């Protein structure tokens, strides 16, 4: 590269100086213009929630200060079009190159390739890098060159591929590219409005965003908390996990650094014969692997933010009950552990990974609500909201993955309460109306004697709700719904000449109208990659879809013998049954869009107006785990 070259460094979710391949490459020679572009219009239905935007703002302030200390000024631009804003930056400084690190969500995949193509047509060099993963999604395939659709097989192959640790040293000095760019202040980006500031101020007491703070959090976890991770992670309430997930989401710390730090500790413990430490490190590395896998699935199956990976839920009769949805959001289901988790989420933007599993399982299995509604609510409220991780978590719980929970599995929140909050301390903290309930009854107050309820000041149905649905009734309704789903699936298969049609979508478009705009993304054929580092696009030719494990015949017969009906059967989708992608497949060479039935949640999810009442095993946790 010529020493007088000028490069645009486009920051997105890679808000760090250390181990940032795009920044390192651009800073080696010539001058740079570091930019952060905020284009709310392009975020669509996945516009970040309040707490996520707060974190982003604080992280950008931190990054701005760090870049300034190195001699470069981070340029903030609020734009209507990312492509137009980048072109204006290129023209303003006379840049000849644009660099950035990869993203893997479906919207970013299409946008990034469109931008790379347009800039290439104008003679502007574009280079993209892996700043987010241990292995790129297009690097990990099975022996037949097919995509993995089970985590264990994927992770085993990924671990075998790990080479020597790679890290990009931070630049010692940066040179700012000369030129006049139309920019704004970070306040003018609009990441935080006046009404949100009072609530956001509380977040700063418990969290410290920024890449250097991420390094401190990693050191604290590895040196002081990793050893007991295998035990502590099963206790809800308190900081029993690493708390690194928001830092990882915004790229404030490299996943390579996290992986290598834990791996080195594991090697040391293994040599010492410390089996507890070895197990803890292995479990945490597995959590890192699940984050990798979420990107892998979303890259190879870019429709998974709106449709199930497997075809089984295409026929599932979702119960689009707005009242149940609201009760779940507000923590008013009558199941204390579920309610405590949802109120903690609303108050803090954070919940333990075990609680995420419990509340999402209750949402899908007890209430039969569409998993996409729950996923979108998590996106709107979690401090570490991460589309890819939430997609795989919710699909796992709803039985949409080949290695996910069985759809028939229904976990009792009462039993889970005694398992993970045996003394009821977590419930008492978030449900003050149950603060005086004895531990014996706190997870099932509906069974408590009247004298106990009276002494605790609890009036079921008054100051704390009765259960929204009985466990036995919920189990019967789930069985009914599965029976209907399988009957319809069998009828469709029988109608097919070969009985082998694999449809990879569900009937979520039938669960009710939505006032939210549909997120339709158009893709174009990408220009050829100019480097092995360049990001690729999904190719449906290498997808090997595993069908859901078959139901034993005796269980099928049991379901059929029940012969029950379900009120909300819904219509069977008439969408195409092919493995369409929201991103352009290099093998298909044609324009594609997302489904015209793209899923959106109801308008009622807007929390600014409807929140009026407030001011398993280890493998089950992992899919929703936030580390």
TrEMBL record:
Sites marked Electron transfer via tryptophanyl radical? 318, 371, 394
Q: Which UniProt keywords apply?
A: Chromophore, FAD, Flavoprotein
Q: Where is the Photolyase/cryptochrome alpha/beta domain?
A: 5-134
UniProt binding sites for FAD: 229, 241-245, 284, 384-386
Superkingdom of origin? Eukaryota
Instruction: Name the PROSITE patterns for this protein.
Output: DNA_PHOTOLYASES_1_1, PHR_CRY_ALPHA_BETA
Residue ranges annotated as compositionally biased, kind Basic and acidic residues, are 609-627
> Entry cofactor note text?
Binds 1 FAD per subunit.
GO cellular component terms listed in the entry, alphabetical order = cytoplasm; nucleus
- Check the record and name the Pfam families matching this protein: DNA_photolyase (PF00875), FAD_binding_7 (PF03441)
Spell out the Polar residues composition-biased ranges. 582-600
Q: Which InterPro entries match?
A: Crypto/Photolyase_FAD-like_sf (IPR036134), Crypto/Photolyase_N_sf (IPR036155), Cryptochr/Photolyase_FAD-bd (IPR005101), Cryptochrome/DNA_photolyase_1 (IPR002081), Cryptochrome_pln (IPR014134), DNA_photolyase_1_CS_C (IPR018394), DNA_photolyase_N (IPR006050), Rossmann-like_a/b/a_fold (IPR014729)
One of its GO biological process terms is: circadian regulation of gene expression
Q: Where is this region: Disordered?
A: 527-558, 582-627
- Transmembrane stretches, start-end: none
Q: Name one GO molecular function term.
A: deoxyribodipyrimidine photo-lyase activity
Q: Which cofactor does it need?
A: FAD; (6R)-5,10-methylene-5,6,7,8-tetrahydrofolate
UniProt record similarity statement? Belongs to the DNA photolyase class-1 family.
Q: Enumerate the NCBIfam families for this protein.
A: crypt_chrom_pln
Protein name, as recorded: Photolyase/cryptochrome alpha/beta domain-containing protein
Q: Which organism is it from?
A: Anisodus tanguticus
